[in-house]
Structure formats: C-alpha cells, structure tokens
Amino acid sequence: MDIQDAQREMRSVYIGGFWGQLVSSVIWLVSAALGTWVSPKASILTIVIGGFFIFPLTQLLLRLSGRRARVSKENTFHSLGMQVAFVLPFSMLLLVPVGLYNLNWFFPALMVLLGAHYLPFATLYGMRMFLFLAGILIGAGVVIAQYFSGTFSLGAWVAGVALFAFAWVGRSIATGEASVPSLPNSPGGSRE
Hints:
Blueprint: H1 3-13, H2 18-37, H3 40-51, H4 54-64, H5 78-91, H6 95-101, H7 106-118, H8 121-125, H9 129-147, H10 154-174
C-alpha cells in the first residue's frame, strides 16, 4: 500500500480523527471543570486516568457507529500509529517535576506535549489541520504558562475547546464536506 492510500485509509477509518479528538475534548473539559470547581488533584487524576481510555473509547464509538475500528495490516502507517500513541503517555512523566515546581504550569505543559504528539498526525492522515492544531496547542500552552499562570485550569479549557473544534474540522475534511490544502505526497498535494 503506498503512502497516499495509507493516509486515505487512516482518514476514512478514523474519520479524520473525529472520535478520538471528541473523546479527548470531553476528558479535557471535564478535567477543566473539576480543576475550576473541585480541586487540582481531581482535575489531574481525571486527565491522566481518562487519557488511558481515549483509544478504547474511540474504538468503541467507531464500532457503535457501524464503522471498522482499525486500519488494515497492509497499511504502511499501521505500526507508526500505535507508536505515536505511546509518545504522550511516556512524555507525561515530565509533568511531575513541572507540577511540583509550579502546579499552574501542569496544563500548559501538557498542552505543549499534546501539541507535539499531534505533529505526526499530519503525515499519518495527510491532513495539514493537525499542524494547525499542534501549533495552537503548543503556542497557547507557552502563552498561558508565561502570562496567565495565575490560574490552574485555563489551559485545560483552551485545549478542550480546541480539540472539540478540530474534531469537527477533521470530520468535515475526512467526509469531504470541506477542503484544506493537502500535504505534499497526499491526495491533491504536489510531489516536489
């Protein structure tokens, strides 16, 4: 299977990342609400524990919607997708010293890690929108840490809303309801 076919299958099977980002946005928004109205501890536990359920819930929602839940084994990106999925949980270990130094940097730091996690999705899916999502998450994380670190939950609210919005953008691109410039070597892109 060539790269373009692999990207096309990724977009089709995972609906441009729709269910995964939707599930992720709900977890981030619940965590933001808990951080705002309950406690930072409840908020952090929700985002960390909830994060382990993003993929299984995505699989469940794909199946419930009548879609297959995995790409074919012949897909060039089959293994890479799984490897990319493990980058975020392993890099989250960096949040321990960040949170101990300044608890209000927890979510901005997690936004930077999540943004970096989304960068390879641009190639996996052949969708430039993941570069924009990554840039928004990383940029907002840095700005919030630098200028708005007096509040604990702001980063969680911003990330949750961004993920929710981009879930729908990805869905519309994958289902052909919108068009976004393609990456090189992706359908409609140049090969230069």
